[in-house]
């Protein structure tokens, strides 16, 4: 079409439209314009739209499942040394009765084994309690029922760092005893693991929250920082400079790690000095653990940012990781209390290891000896995320 | 080995999104010490061509050689010799002018003293001395352009790409630029590839290439082109050839 012809057409068009209309102070049309604009933007970004529908459902499902029961399946060791007691033809074996009762109790997950051998396992967190039923247990109960004045003692070596878990074990034991004969006369002698550490909900919750806060904020901040480079157009300018993708990634890592360090300082100072949570293990190890845990999130966001085209998607990634993580990491309810099929999911989330390490060092006084596997896994995650980030990183404009 | 600093043979670039053939069998040869202006209607493929030449965008097919290196294979080897001011001035808004330029200076491996000297020189040419510590966000549109040009020039590259780099720059500054460009080419044998929609700017180039729908449809020295088409301005040739009536 010739330029002159085009101009003629435009002039015709202009005559049709009514110019100089009086401006209204409020117009629903204008409101509608904004509304349609917003909806159109979403329409162009189906991934965000999908996430908006999928994410809440995933989060609700995970939370629902995680909270569907109270604390249950707590792993305990029972060492039943009860030799039984024969009264004429009847033979009493109350130790076995109690053991059977506990085996059938969903609150605990019973393993049979030696008390002495498994105390260490309780210290290391494999079991929550080791229960020792003495050899004269049946005999003692018989004597009690005959009116003799005797003392029967059940020894429970128990991890008391989490009040709700401890209560769950003790309640199931009380219920078992009540079922047999009532607990009068039977003493439950608790030996508290981790050097007598007993904590309130606040202390347990706060230490886990320290890991959580770092996880959540660092992931969000890293993702937003990385996405900002993409959408501002500065990234594509870098493609034609000598900077390689690997150098760029490492630069991001160091920069974000320094930001992470500031967050770690703030979190540790608040947790330890403001809230006064005692650190039973090494503060230095705690600090190093926070750095390692934080770096997992930096590397994760490096990888995820390659899949996010805009800040919406970046922000949507955060709840997908952070909220189910909260439900399955052992932060709210112990991992062994989760439905069986949900349990494996917890091993995928860095938060699981972060919470275990931070709680372990702060509340149980654990060190590298007990936590090495968690450290290895977090380090492995860093390597995996870094490799994935390097594989998926964009070093040229998309076509 | 010939003395072309840029050699493009049968370059094709198809964007997968929308299946658009943005560059269609382009052939281009540019000598060292030339100012070459790429002109053409919106969407004719100028930016796409430049992005391929700088190695930022991979071609669909065809051969590109820059400074005798194969692009995109050896793009990181040529990176230190080329400077780019992209069409969208891509700067870090939250950083100051100096921090932005310093960032690129570091990428190009400059020492602190080299950077200082070079920045001083560029700020004089770009009239930006007082804005040195200003956050880019708070600069005017034309000033941002000038900062973007400073980033492209900081490492004293031999080959420069200016994609509509002078848009929004006032006439006085624009004259400074052109004088400077000329001196770069004359005294230091730099090569400049630029795109522009300002035709009197294009006329100042040594050679002009006119693109239409991804093809280079005309090329030559401005005065010869005007003679060939019997016109007094390049603008007339542009309108005649580039089919502005229906873009694309
Ligand atoms: N990232 C992209 N994805 C898909 N198509 C693109 C992309 N970038 C550009 N195009 C298309 O390629 C064609 C050439 O665009 P290009 O930006 O190279 O034009 P141009 O000559 O620089 O135009 P202008 O004068 O407006 O800057 C256009 O049709 C455009 O829509
Ligand atoms: Mg362009």
UniProtKB/TrEMBL annotation, chain A:
InterPro entries: ABC-2_transporter_component, ABC2_TM, ABC2_TM_bact-type
Domain ABC transmembrane type-2: 154-396
One GO cellular component, as annotated: plasma membrane
PROSITE patterns with a match to the protein in the record: ABC_TM2
GO MF term list: ABC-type transporter activity
Chief location: membrane
The organism's place on the tree of life at top rank: Archaea
Location of this chain's protein in the cell: Cell membrane
Membrane topology: Multi-pass membrane protein
Alphabetic keyword roster: Cell membrane, Membrane, Transmembrane, Transmembrane helix, Transport
Membrane-traversing stretches: 49-67, 209-228, 249-277, 283-305, 317-336, 371-393
Family per similarity comment: Belongs to the ABC-2 integral membrane protein family.
Protein name: ABC transporter permease
Protein's organism: Candidatus Heimdallarchaeum aukensis
TrEMBL record, chain B:
Secretion signal span: none
Domain ABC transporter span(s) in chain numbering: 6-238
Highest taxon listed in the record's lineage: Archaea
Ubl conjugation among keywords: no
Keywords attached to this entry: ATP-binding, Nucleotide-binding
Molecular function GO labels: ATP binding; ATP hydrolysis activity
InterPro entries named in the record: AAA+_ATPase (IPR003593), ABC_transporter-like_ATP-bd (IPR003439), ABC_transporter-like_CS (IPR017871), P-loop_NTPase (IPR027417)
Pfam families in alphabetical order: ABC_tran
Name of protein: ABC transporter ATP-binding protein
Source organism: Candidatus Heimdallarchaeum aukensis
